[in-house]
Structures are given as C-alpha cells and as structure tokens.
Amino acid sequence: MRILIVGAGAIGGYFGGRLLEAGRDVTFLVRPGRAEELDRSGLIVRSPLGNILYPSPPHVMAPMLDQTFDLVLLSCKAYDLDAAMDSFAPAVGPETMILPLLNGMAHLDRLAERFTPDNVLGGQCLISLDRDASGAILHLNDTNQLSFGELSGVLTPRILKVAEALQHAGFDANLSQQIILEMWEKWCFIATGAGITGSMRASIGDVIASDGEALVLRLLAECASVAEHAGHAVRSEVRQRFQAMLTSRGSKMTASMLRDIERGAPIEVEHLIGDMIARRPGADTPVSGELSALDFVYLNLKSYEARRVREQK
Predict the structure, then answer these.
(1) Which pTM value belongs to this model?
(2) Is 245 exposed, middle or buried, given 0-12, 13-18 or 19+ CB atoms closer than 10 A?
C-alpha cells in the first residue's frame, strides 16, 4: 500500500516515521522549509517508546506531486485544511482513502465535499506530541494509539487492507467499527481539556488546585450533551475516565492549544469550541443571562485570537 503523509510535523512525522521503520511504502508531502530540514537532519523523533532517526526520508513537494496514492494520512491543523486539500488533491484518485486525524467532526464534510464521501475514512489518534526549535518531534507520553474505520462501521475489504498496512508498525493501530462515536468522545475530551487549560492558561492540576473542578465538569457535561443531541452519547465508562483525568489533583496535563497560545500561534478555537456551540440544542435561538461554560471558554479563546491578529498587523 502506497501511503502519503501530508506534512512531517508532530503527528504526521511520528506515525510516518514509525511506518517507515516498519518497512512501509511512505512518502511525506512537505513544504520547502521542512524539505530542507529533512534533507539536512533526517526525520528525528524522541520518544519513551523508542527514538527514530531516519536519514533523508522520502518526501515530495506539492508542485511535483503527480501520482495517486492508496492512502492519504492527514494530520494538519483545522485552519490549514483548505490549503492541505489543495496540496494533496493530485494524490487522490477514485480508490484513494483519506484518513484524517483532525479533532472534531466538521472536516469530514469538508473532505467529502472537496473529494467524494467514498474517499473519506474516520480516524483519530491518542498521543501527546510537540516539536522543538530544531524540528525534532517530541513524544510527551507513553501512549501512541491510532484508530480508524469506515464511517459506516462496515469491515470492508479496503479497510482491512489499511489495518494490515498499519499493524505491527510500532504504534497501537486500532480498527474500529464505531469510529464516529469514538471521534465524538475524543472531541468532548479535547474540547474540555483545551477549553479549560487554554482559557485558564494553566495545567489541569493548577485549575483543580484553584477550585476549578466545577467548571471542568460543567464544560464536559455541556460537550457530552451536544454529542448526545447528535446521536452519539458518550459511553458512561468513557465519561467516568474523562472525568478522572480532567479533575486529577497535581496533573500536569495541558492541551496543545495552550502550547500554541504560549508561543503566540493560531489556535483551533472554531473547530474545537465554535463548532461544538453551533451543534448544541437550540443553537439558533438567542440566549440571555448567564454564560454557559462553552460560551465562556469560546469568548476567552476568541479574545486571544483577536489580540494575536491585531499584534501581528
């Protein structure tokens, strides 16, 4: 199976690097600056599960992309999705499968509109990653799960081929027959974690130490209500696990959104929080009175974005 990894950033570089080490046919689609880094230093991953140093990994830039691939692994930020689709469009043929690892749900419709619904799979990953100033990818925990499946949940011959390509490659490859539910559950978790740590500019442990548990639980409950309204209620055991993680005293957990804020970068506030608000019951009905937890974190994070844009002018 010929696999195109769109970008060699934290997520794409990590999973692509594992696949390369496992002998898979992988090519990275990169921008000129990243191509220079890969040519000069190779693909570097520092991980508690084993480091990667892959000299000169196969890569191509968009103007030279002139052939289709079997699988396109997509892990860009939501605000870069349109540009990413433009860049990898020549790689998509009628049989190409696109496996997006973005948070939220809106990207599924956008990919289906740009290509076809048949091109699109469901996917998510559970891993904490960052990059240092040199371009090296840093694996920040000991979890590296990638889940994928047909949006219908059917075990088709093509998804079984994807499973075969991703298995035994140094990460936990999970073929799911309920990938949409799992994507909703992760969205609830990420929206809560990012909403809290991003708006408070603090770790989960610091928020809990400041008597913020009620706000955390309120935000999680609001997100879970949106998921239930959409027909994908968060499973009780999953919600209990989320609650334990998001209210753990002394936890150093932060979302990547907070790291983006600290470096003055754009954030996925619309994709993670704005779209959650747009999907809640009665979203079209004006509400007066007390702000919901979702409204509060959205206002805070949008204010950061407004200041960031103003200061860049």
Answers:
(1) 0.93
(2) middle
